[in-house]
Amino acid sequence: MLRALLATRLKSLWFSMFSRMRQGKMSGGKKIAIGLFAIYVFAAIMFSLGGMLYGIADAVAGTAYEYLIFLLAGTMALTLSVLGSVFTAQKHLFDASDNELLLSMPIPMPMILMSRLLMLWVLNQVYTLLVMIAAAVVYALTCTLTLVNVLTLILATLLLPLLALAISCLLAFIFELISSKMHSKTAITYILTAVFLAAYFLVIARADTLLKLLIEKGPAFAESIRRFFPPLYLFAVSITMPTFTNVALLILWTVLPMVLACVLLSKNLLKLMTTKKGARKIVYRAESLKTSSPSKALLNREWKRFFTLPIYVINSTFGVILEAALAAGLLLKGSELTSLMPELPAHLFPAIVTAALTFMGIVTCTTAASISLEGKRFWILRMLPVTPWDILRAKLNLNLLVGIPFLLLASVTAVFVLRVDAATAALMIAIPLTAQVFAAVFGLCANIMLPRFEWINEAVVIKQSGSVSLSVFGGMGLAFLGYAMYGLLLDVIGSLACMLIFEGVLLVLTVLSGVWLAAKGIKRFEAL
Amino acid sequence: MLRIEHLTKTYGSKKAVDDLTLHIAPGEIYGFIGHNGAGKTTTIKACCGILQFDSGEIAIDGISIKDDPLECKRRLAYIPDSPDLYDFLSGIQYLNFIADIYIIPQNIREERIAKYAEMFALTSDLAQPISAYSHGMKQKLAIISALIHEPKLMLLDEPFVGLDPIASHTLKSLMRELCDRGGAIFFSLHVLEVVEKLCDKVAIIRSGKLIAAGTTDEVRGNASLEDVFLELEEK
After folding, report:
1. What interface predicted TM-score (ipTM) does this complex get?
2. What's the mean pLDDT in A144-158?
3. Residues of B with CB below 8 A from A380's CB?
4. Domain coordinates in residue numbering, chain B
């Protein structure tokens, strides 16, 4: 029974990524392209994480503090797993649409709970593996890796997701408990998300300092971790200094919290699953209705859906938050930056700011999940007397309205603070803007190519669907290609020409995506 | 009002609808019956432009759904078997959205919403989010949204599922009123007694093929519609 339940959930997770492949709708060439794309995403993550870990490995290799590599890796894996799975845990444990169906069947409650926890453990295991493979490669390259190290590395990698899962479940339980007491679940999710993001940005903003601190004061840092959060310390030393005591204590510190989380959930799951949230009745009082044109009505509908799905907002406005932070940072600390400019090459700051804004524009993509989110309600749009282009335009406009204002604010602020010449200023504004338009158009194309209408909850399509991965990672790949091109050609043709070429490439790709959308995309959309 | 000529739709190698021809005239309530998977929903969805079909022709009020789908959609209304509506809107927001799309003037939409919401006892719930609605309430809201632009043709897929007896009675009255005004209704249903009482004409479909069609009296002859249906299904 447990196997059947788990298989259903894993299939749902897999199906969310590769539905068309499973249905046999995808050609061999496309399967290979998706395979290559997956390898690219994996490699991109590996290299960025590996780069960070190599920095510390280089400093501690051959000393007694080699465990600091895994202390950092463990911290990263744990953070990534908890951040990546807490809202998924909340959705899958308490808000899954098949809750009522399963509760009506003769399935013991612990079985339902166990199947969901195992699925979440698999998800956390994927997050952990992303970091741990990079860490293992860095360790093997810089230090001596014995067979015992390998065995304990595998064991520790399997155990760490249990701890992450216990923390995710506890946080999800608290979130659900709070939101079940409140009328507006959306509001509480936004508040909690804001707290989460604030903590995240605090860590990111201080990442460089923390990394330096870790290298300089590694032993003291490790001692603090050992005292205040022993499982991470045990995780690291179990791999580099494997003793029976270290390994046994690691097992205890990872398995025990999970057991406690299971006890807590099994006692409260049924109550939380069946609690009607925010059921205060609002009585309708007839009042004058506002009228809108069909196109505005479609756009309003997109806005309403966007803001009632916190996970959608969080996932697609990461770049917007960074843009606002950048604009504020430039306004507050701009003078410090400009005082450094005479000592550095003139092109440096404008290029860095443009690169950052391009990245932010590219990751601000609402369109990649927009069609899939129609789900079972897609019939409404299809029976209405509106053209497919009306529908797609509303989806594009939402993306542009979400992305452009803060992007423009940040670009214009940067132009004024950095006091660049007119040509550079124009490109500093045009490149991120084109990147934003490209992200919106390409996201829509990706979702038309990889739609997913059957889902248990929205988080599946927003976070795990193939179209979202394709548009975000594809866009990021394009941005990195641009940075690489800039680095290679800077000395040959100069900064301005490099920026101009990149703008040209972005424009061509945007136009090509737009042409595909108008010619083939609309027809494919009609046939969905 | 609705002309279906040689409609064929396949899913992979399976013919869901096979060379189906049906004519529904103004003023007719046309029942469409058949076993599960017979092709009823596919036919209805093809008629309202939700589903593309392989061959044949569908015309609404003389307009081809392939040539001018928007004009056809302006004249028809569709209610699916499972009313999945926008959970993120309230009932009134959903109705107003539909009215915006059909460009219904403000005073007329307010009047129609008030009238139909009252008829289906949904007025006090209109401010509630749709996510808080029961299946029956969603079905009522879908019906009101379908009536808001006063369609000439209504395509209904199992419209009585989830409705309470009063709402079912109201819907039947509205269906008759619409046809008396020159409109037409084409709908699928499994409750043969209702089809027998309500429909002017009836069509029976089996494995995508039309096996009987005509006035309800012609199709059932001296027997009940249930007996005729069972007999035809066993052949």
Report:
1. 0.89
2. 90
3. 85-86
4. 2-83+152-234
